[in-house]
Design goal:
By secondary structure, the protein is an alpha/beta fold. The protein contains 11 helices and 10 strands. An 8-stranded parallel barrel has the order 1-4-5-6-7-8-9-10, surrounded by 8 helices. Strand 5, helix 4 and strand 6 form a beta-alpha-beta unit. The relative contact order is 0.13. Bound molecules: ligand PBG.
Length: about 325
């Protein structure tokens, strides 16, 4: 026998062949753009630790949402940054609060052309920065927090959200939110469950983006990065409780988890490429240490290849433009 017997390189010879045989293709419809809106802003305000990402004003958010619709993105995920915070995060359940207002604004702007998602969590609204309300010992009170989430779900649904993203990692949150939505006549609103959400250093830049008041960390409710099997448990519970879409977060350091989850569920799978994943590439590129555009495409392709049908990424708009230009 003479070697090589097989020549896999034949299918890598030209860009046209590579395009033909690609197993994974990025599509705008599977990309979701997370956006921040800050109460009281007249102009968008840059986020230092996330070059290219801003805290939006009401007006600039509407314009950005219109652009996202024009790019035919899958959706937008909205985060609100309030002016005032308190221990119970009351701004989260204020129908005139920053997030509900943003949901209504975006809904009015884009109609049904874009899926409007809203973060369902208290951390942006609490003065201690935790994802729930605290008990007397200063820990997060799971069940008292669930009552707040139920209220918040109804407010977001009434503002016009298509999807609420339960990101707080409280036990039972999906079931409680589902029941609250259904009882409020909002059985059309979907729950995107941050099922496997790890206590990650990669949320660092997000803390600036939402002006987080947190001291300490979230290890008593978010998952330990050491654990893989535990994610399947979280996913099973969320599906039993009625999750419509399951999410793994962060994405890049958890591709094994993403693959495990994608192999066993029969609901759509999402992954969140978080702020730190974004900023690490941007920072290295700024120093000329990495080819930015290639690193962006490679990272999102990897997440997709590992099993994500839907990717939340701060590069969603840019990637969609590249796709339209035939560059991705
Ligand atoms: C919680 C929430 C966080 C992120 C999304 N939802 C912060 C956290 O859990 O600490 C992080 C997203 C990112 O880093 O891009 N509301």
């Amino acid at each position: 026998m003479s070697f090589p017997v097989e020549r896999p390189r034949r299918l890598r010879r030209t860009a046209a062949v590579r395009r033909l045989v690609a197993e994974t293709r990025l599509h705008s419809a599977g990309l979701v753009l997370p956006m921040f809106v800050r109460e009281g802003l007249a102009e968008p305000s840059p986020i230092n630790s996330m070059p290219g990402v801003v805290q939006h004003s009401r007006d600039s958010l509407r314009r950005a949402a219109a652009q996202a619709a024009q790019l035919r993105l899958g959706g937008v995920m909205l985060f609100g940054v309030p002016l005032m915070r308190d221990p119970s995060g009351s701004g989260a359940t204020d129908p005139d609060g920053v997030l509900s207002t943003a949901v209504a604004d975006v809904r009015a702007e884009v109609g049904d052309s874009l899926v409007v998602m809203a973060d369902l969590c208290l951390d942006e609204f609490t003065d201690h920065g935790h994802c729930g309300v605290l008990n007397e010992q200063g820990g997060v009170d799971n069940d008292a927090t669930l009552d707040r989430y139920a209220e918040m779900a109804i407010v977001l649904a009434q503002a016009g959200a298509d999807v609420v993203g339960t990101s707080g990692m409280m036990d039972g949150q999906v079931g409680v939110v589902r029941a609250a939505l259904d009882a409020a006549g909002a059985d059309h609103v979907s729950v995107l469950a941050y099922a496997a959400k790890y206590a990650s250093a990669a949320y660092g830049p997000f803390r600036e983006a939402v002006d987080s008041q947190l001291t300490g960390d979230r290890r008593a409710y978010q998952q330990d990065p050491a654990n893989r099997r535990e994610s399947l448990r979280e996913v099973r519970l969320d599906i039993e409780e009625g999750a419509d879409i399951i999410m793994v977060k962060p994405a890049g350091s958890y591709l094994d988890v993403l693959r495990d989850v994608a192999d066993v569920v029969d609901v759509p799978v999402a992954a969140y490429q978080v702020s730190g994943e974004y900023s690490m590439v941007e920072a290295a590129a700024e120093r000329g240490w990495i080819d930015r555009d290639r690193a962006v495409i490679e990272s999102v392709t990897g997440i997709h290849r590992a099993g994500a049908d839907i990717v939340l990424t701060y590069w969603a708009g840019e990637i969609a433009r590249w796709i339209n230009e035939g560059r991705a």
